[in-house]
Structure formats: structure tokens, C-alpha cells
Design the sequence.
């Protein structure tokens, strides 16, 4: 079957699902015409520093509507990485590389639905990704409920620097559905569910595992499926401030289970400042085949600390400043955000000193946003 | 050789009652209670009426919800960067509410 035909059937099926399931809700209130996202430009400089890794770069996004029916978005994002993480310094040599990420999206508003078709490309010297995604949002129930369904298909080409003979692929499918509900004139809540399936090479050709203390190449399963469900609520507290709470539960076929909880508070300061603060707690269990130092030969083995048992706490804040405004013409804001994170690994030993590894990192975002 | 059979108790433990003749077993009683509860709920729904619920927050009451302070993801690029930082450190993924999702990186 041709890819375009399959895509056409998918769109028809999703539209049928929305129409069938939510048709009765639409009839409960007058349907409203969906609106396109506002014309917008964003320019960002980002820096990540911690655990021996520095990653920084610029990013730009521009969105413009055409004839009030279609909106086009173009974006690019650069990550210049200098890596001397514990994995690298204990098994290889520090390196530098750059990742370029490009995105193009088209939003289309029809009746009370908005449809987004997006393509993306990410290039690293030894890893490339191409992706296609489709998202549909439909307002129902007199505009009180918004239902989202989406799908992403991505394909990766995996190489290994210094080994031209190594080449492999990975494919990913993401299916998501979400509902955002107006609860009261001051409270909103949402539920999002997403399933991801992967097949192909899902490890790193550079990373090693330890078996009886000896270094061996890591061996990961070539398939993985995961599910995640997230609940969010946000409420206006009435003093030009708002509070939000989020919880996500994640589980997958590698037996990893994770909990994420986040609390945030936002407040206007004077006429021109908006401040945000949040705290985020994350905790996950280890994959079935993860071992700090395996004491048996098994089909799969990994010492990837991303798959280990750990928790982390993030505190963050952001300040937005209304820089310039011309009513009806443009609105320019300057923004600065900082995140501080602390990760504690419970079963990953720093082989340099024999103690459990932990790390701290800082994230900085400086950016301008303009609507016009 | 015959297997010894435990003798039936000749008397009830204190506080227990003999079941009535013809009374349904305990699991059946539980099912009957469930059916009664469902019928009661159906009757209550019928009494209320079968009309579809009306939107209870009118468009003119949504001014505060439209304020930027109430947006879950205010700035797309900053949200994408934060997701990327988490994707490379954590095993969990998905249901972030950030459109497209995924980091497209090793």
C-alpha cells in the first residue's frame, strides 16, 4: 500500500473517531470555529551544564498565517555538545559534536477542528532522524472540551564514528490522545495518554556494560513499547496569580516504571513582569537487564544509567518582561529561565572512586518572543 | 486404602447463623445487590432525564482562562528544550503535552 494512501486512511479514521465519539457532545453546545495559532516568532539561546557535559546553541521559530486558513511554522535548533560525562571519561575520550534540528509544520483550521501536519529532521555526525507527525484538535461541548489525537512516525539511521562498517536503523511509532476540559471559569484540567513503540537498534554503539567486572558492549532488546499517562490542572487564584499541578505515570516492556510530579506557581509582578516558579520530582525503577556489574551472562545487559534506578529533583524559575508593545501591531517579550537539577543514582557506581554516582546540572534559557 | 474425610461440624461457631433454606449463596446475593444498585442508578438517571449536559461555563465567563498565565505550554521553543534535557537523562517519555514529542537524538 502506498504511504500516501495509508496516511489518507489514518486521517479518515481519526476524523471518524472524533466525529463518532464526540458528535453528541458537540450537539450539546454551539460549535465554535477553531482559530489558528497566533503569528509568532521566538529566538532562544540555551545552555546546559552539568555532569561533565556542556550543550548550548541558538534556536529560532517563526509562525505566519496565510489567508486565515493555514499557518506555516518553520524552526531550527542547534545543540553544540562538549561531552566529558562519566560514561565518556571512564571508557573513551571526551568529544565535541553538533546536532542540527529542523522542523516545518502546517496548521489548518476547518470548522471546529485544527489539524497540524509536521515534518522534522535531526542530524548528528553519527545519528540522523526523520519524523512525520499528524495532530488533530477538536473543540466540543460548546468550546469547553478540546480533544487531541496525534501520531508520529520516526526513522533513525545509527552510525559509529571511527567505524564505517557499523550501520543500523531504528523506527518509532507514537500514538497520543488527550482531553483538555474547562472545569470552572478559573480552572482547567487535562489528561494525556501516549503509547510509543520502537524497533531496531535501541542502544549506543559506544557504551559498555560490566559483566564480572569485564567491559563488554551493551546489548539491548531490539523492541520496546511504553505507555504514559499525565494529569494536569491549572487554576487562576484571583490575585493575578495561578497555580498548576501535574502527575505522570510511565511504564514499558523493559519493566521501567516512573513517576513524575510537578507543582508550579505563576504571578504577575507590576504591569510588565510575569514570574513563574516550579519544583519537579522524578523517580524511576531500573530496566530488567540493567546491571551495575552483572554477575551472570544474560542475553541483554546494559549499564546505561538512563535505564537505572534513580530519582531527581528540579527547581526552576522564569521571568517574562513586556518589553515593547504596539496594540494591534506587535507584542515583544524578553524572557529568562533557569533550572537546577540534582540526580541521585541508586545503582550506578562511579568506577573512579567506588561510590554511587550523583550529579548536579544547570539549564539556562534566554529568549525573545514576539506576536504580530 | 481410603482417604479420611473430615467430619462436618455439628454446631455453629458462636455468632454465626444457619443459612435459610433456599437462600441464594453469598456470591449470588452479592450479584443481586449489584443488579439492584444498577437498577436504582438507572431509575435515578431516568428521573433526572436523558438530556445531554449543557456547557456550564459560558464563553463570556472564560476571560480569565484566556490569560497567558493559564497556558500550560506558553513558549514552544523553551518547552522543546526542556523536554530535550529530560529525554536524554530519563527513560520515561510521552504524554508531555508538547506537540510532536520525542527528542530525535541518540
Sequence:
Amino acid at each position: 500500500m502506498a504511504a500516501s494512501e495509508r496516511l489518507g486512511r489514518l486521517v479518515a479514521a481519526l476524523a471518524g473517531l472524533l466525529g463518532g465519539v464526540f458528535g453528541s457532545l458537540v450537539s450539546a453546545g454551539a460549535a465554535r470555529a477553531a482559530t489558528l495559532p497566533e503569528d509568532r516568532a521566538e529566538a532562544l539561546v540555551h545552555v546546559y551544564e552539568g555532569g561533565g557535559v556542556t550543550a548550548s546553541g541558538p534556536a529560532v521559530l517563526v509562525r505566519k498565517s496565510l489567508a486565515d486558513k493555514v499557518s506555516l511554522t518553520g524552526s531550527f535548533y542547534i545543540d553544540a555538545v562538549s561531552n566529558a560525562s562519566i560514561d565518556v571519561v571512564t571508557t573513551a575520550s571526551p568529544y565535541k559534536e553538533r546536532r542540527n534540528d529542523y522542523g516545518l509544520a502546517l496548521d489548518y483550521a476547518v470548522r471546529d477542528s485544527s489539524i497540524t501536519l509536521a515534518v522534522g529532521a535531526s542530524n548528528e555526525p553519527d545519528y540522523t532522524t526523520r519524523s512525520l507527525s499528524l495532530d488533530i484538535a477538536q473543540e466540543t461541548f460548546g468550546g469547553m472540551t478540546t480533544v487531541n489525537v496525534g501520531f508520529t512516525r520516526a526513522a533513525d539511521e545509527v552510525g559509529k564514528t571511527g567505524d564505517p562498517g557499523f550501520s543500523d536503523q531504528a523506527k518509532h511509532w507514537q500514538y497520543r490522545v488527550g482531553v483538555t476540559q474547562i472545569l470552572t471559569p478559573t480552572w482547567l484540567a487535562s489528561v494525556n495518554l501516549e503509547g510509543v513503540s520502537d524497533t531496531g537498534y535501541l542502544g549506543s554503539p559506544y557504551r559498555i556494560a560490566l559483566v564480572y567486572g569485564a567491559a563488554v558492549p551493551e546489548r539491548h532488546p531490539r523492541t520496546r513499547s511504553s505507555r504514559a499517562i499525565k494529569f494536569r490542572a491549572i487554576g487562576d487564584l484571583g490575585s493575578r496569580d495561578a497555580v498548576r499541578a501535574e502527575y505522570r505515570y510511565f511504564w514499558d516492556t523493559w519493566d521501567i516504571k516512573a513517576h513524575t510530579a510537578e507543582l508550579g506557581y505563576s504571578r504577575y509582578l507590576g504591569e510588565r513582569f510575569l514570574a513563574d516558579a516550579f519544583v519537579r520530582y522524578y523517580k524511576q525503577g531500573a530496566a530488567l537487564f540493567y546491571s551495575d556489574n552483572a554477575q551472570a551472562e544474560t542475553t541483554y545487559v546494559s549499564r546505561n544509567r538512563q535505564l537505572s534506578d534513580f530519582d531527581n529533583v528540579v527547581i526552576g524559575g522564569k521571568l517574562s518582561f513586556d518589553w515593547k508593545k504596539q496594540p494591534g501591531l506587535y507584542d515583544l517579550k524578553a524572557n529568562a529561565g533557569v533550572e537546577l537539577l540534582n540526580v541521585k543514582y541508586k545503582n550506578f557506581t562511579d568506577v573512579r572512586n567506588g561510590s554511587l554516582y550523583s550529579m548536579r546540572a544547570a539549564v539556562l534559557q534566554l529568549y525573545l518572543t514576539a506576536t504580530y | 486404602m481410603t482417604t479420611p474425610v473430615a467430619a462436618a461440624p455439628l454446631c455453629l461457631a458462636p455468632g454465626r447463623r444457619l443459612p435459610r433454606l433456599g437462600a441464594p449463596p453469598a456470591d449470588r446475593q452479592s450479584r443481586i445487590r449489584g443488579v439492584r444498585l444498577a437498577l436504582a442508578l438507572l431509575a435515578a438517571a431516568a428521573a433526572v432525564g436523558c438530556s445531554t449536559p449543557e456547557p456550564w461555563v459560558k464563553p463570556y465567563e472564560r476571560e480569565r482562562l484566556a490569560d497567558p498565565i493559564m497556558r500550560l505550554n506558553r513558549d514552544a521553543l523553551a518547552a522543546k528544550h526542556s523536554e530535550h534535557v529530560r529525554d536524554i537523562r530519563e527513560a520515561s517519555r510521552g504524554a508531555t503535552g508538547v506537540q510532536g514529542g520525542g527528542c530525535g537524538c541518540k
